[in-house]
Amino acid sequence: MSLAPDSTALTPALGDLFARELPELALPWRAEATPEPTLLALNEPLAESLGLDPAALRTPEGLGLLTGTLVPAGATPVAQVYAGHQFGGYSPRLGDGRALLLGEITDTDGVLRDLHLKGSGRTPLARGGDGLAAVGPMLREYVVSEAMHALGIPTTRALAVVATGRTVRRETPLPGAVLARTASSHLRVGSFQYARATDDLDLLRRLADHAIARHHPDAAQADNPYLALFDAVAAAQASLVARWMCVGFVHGVMNTDNVTISGESIDYGPCAFLDVFEPTTVFSSIDEGGRYAFGNQPPITEWNLARLAEALLPLIDDDQEKAVALAVEGLGRFRDRYAEAWKAGTRAKLGLPAGLDDAVATPLVDEVYELMRANHVDHTGFFRALGSAARGNAEPVRGLVLDLAGIDAWLERWLAACPSGPDADAMDRVNPIYVPRNHLVEETLAAATAGDLAPLASLLAAVRAPYDERAGLERYAEPAPDSFGDYQTFCGT
What we know:
- The chain is α+β, with helices and mostly antiparallel strands.
- Among the domains are: 2-186, no CATH class; 190-347, no CATH class.
- 42% of the residues lie in helices and 13% in strands.
- The longest helix has 30 residues, at 320-349.
- The protein starts with a strand and ends in a 30-residue tail after the last helix.
């Protein structure tokens, strides 16, 4: 790692708050050299919101910052240490095996953000991996995180993808890349699991105080700040996962080290969006038991939060039994919060008023999802087409469903549920027409890996304005062709 000779042209000072306050969780490390760095994608609006000059980021010095090989003086790049339950099995020491936290940067709104790399080379936490990343998976994270941001879902965001000029060996040789991304922080449930496992109560308390100050400052004023911290994280996760479910997003690897304290979506590995609606859908090639299937995401989030509660017990109360009782009570609130968020989200998707009687609204929601499941209906296309039905044209919806008698009966009850009818305009504001459809993502990544970035630009243009129907983008709203077949995603390591 070298120091940028004129770092002010690239970035304001990178802070070292995490490394300074929690040195036990931070291993100072350097990014590997990049033989031939080439910029593949730069998120200029995000760069500007961070106070960065996009033109400067395109220079050799800028590429050095984006790959971690040339960082401002005073920066302290570190690999973060954390533990985690991976597919239910506990790993006591995981951490950034192929990633580095370059430091924190204050954006133009005065908000502190992490600047983080992925694919920057092996660290002492690599556990036998090569520490590298390929172009395809890094561009997948770029596309999906931008789509999530445009959908209004809290997420880390990709700042840039830089090809390294190095070959990465997976099933076949692939061109390598580094992803630079931002986040409110990279604190995870696994961070607390690691601190708790050390039996260092001071470390656990400092980590909790760090999380409160950075993400949930109101908890500091509570009678029990650490119980309030847990409550705030659970509320943020309930809201987040309800939003995932409403848009048909499947994370794919909901290990505890992929659950953020901030409530942001993180680590877009084997993720995907539903094509047809089916709760048992699994895209990840390594999720053979379906632990992280689409429909399992809410209960798995609750399970992961239980692991956070376990880690926080010594801080919640000195009396173990009392701490457990308080944590269990707090965990119970997650289910209610998720149910409320899901109810609000699905009613909005159907254009129903918030005050509609549950006895009317709940059966409408339950029945339409069962119709979709039984008829293998395209998730995104169906809800978008409902907007046309609310305006008097039911044919787009009817064309998606084999059971015409069933959908006609449901449409009749839905249209009659409120005197003024469903709010079609409001529906169009929450039901996207464009999401990163899996066949288009794969087409885009294959083209980019071969050196053609034009499909990437076109796909990004569609998903960055997901609610705005535009002429010429019809193929981005169409379901996958029958030839696409069973779809699997891979973690990229």
